[in-house]
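Worked example 3 (structure in, sequence out).
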């Protein structure tokens, strides 16, 4: 559905513009964002604002580049890359991560269910280990190769 694909694109554009009001208006009152790695759930418009400001506060210069959008019926899958410098505190359910001053590049996939022009659910997939390694908080693991 082209309309849902364009709607999804507008959400990521709003994040780049730090238009948190648009982001909160784009979610259904009972809508959720789930960080799949941790299972942390952000509920409703207030939760959407918290989720998005968490990233923006931690990476004030952060930008999103959409790599691919696939829409079918009420489902939209967005593959995107986030880049930024960790110059602010990142507030997470596991505790605050003070600014490291390091740059990070993360690849994400969000799976959204859209109904009546609002996001009802969003599941966000990204490699938290890669983020921690780029921020210097864990040792980077060497790539393995098949013999």
């Amino acid at each position: 559905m082209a309309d849902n694909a364009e709607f999804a694109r507008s959400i990521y554009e709003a994040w780049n513009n730090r238009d948190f009001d648009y982001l909160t208006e784009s979610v259904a009152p009972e809508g959720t964002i789930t960080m799949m790695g941790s299972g942390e759930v952000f509920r409703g418009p207030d939760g959407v604002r918290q989720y998005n400001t968490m990233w923006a506060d931690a990476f004030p210069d952060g930008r999103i580049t959409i790599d691919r959008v696939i829409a079918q019926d009420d489902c939209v899958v967005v593959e995107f890359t986030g880049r930024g410098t960790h110059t602010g505190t990142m507030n997470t359910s596991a505790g605050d991560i003070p600014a490291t001053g390091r740059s990070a590049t993360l690849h994400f996939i969000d799976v959204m269910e859209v109904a009546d022009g609002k996001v009802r659910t969003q599941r966000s997939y990204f490699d938290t280990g890669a983020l921690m390694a780029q921020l210097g908080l864990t040792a980077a693991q060497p790539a393995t190769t098949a013999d």
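Notes: The chain has a mean pLDDT of 93. Residues 67 and 80 are 5 Å apart (CA to CA).
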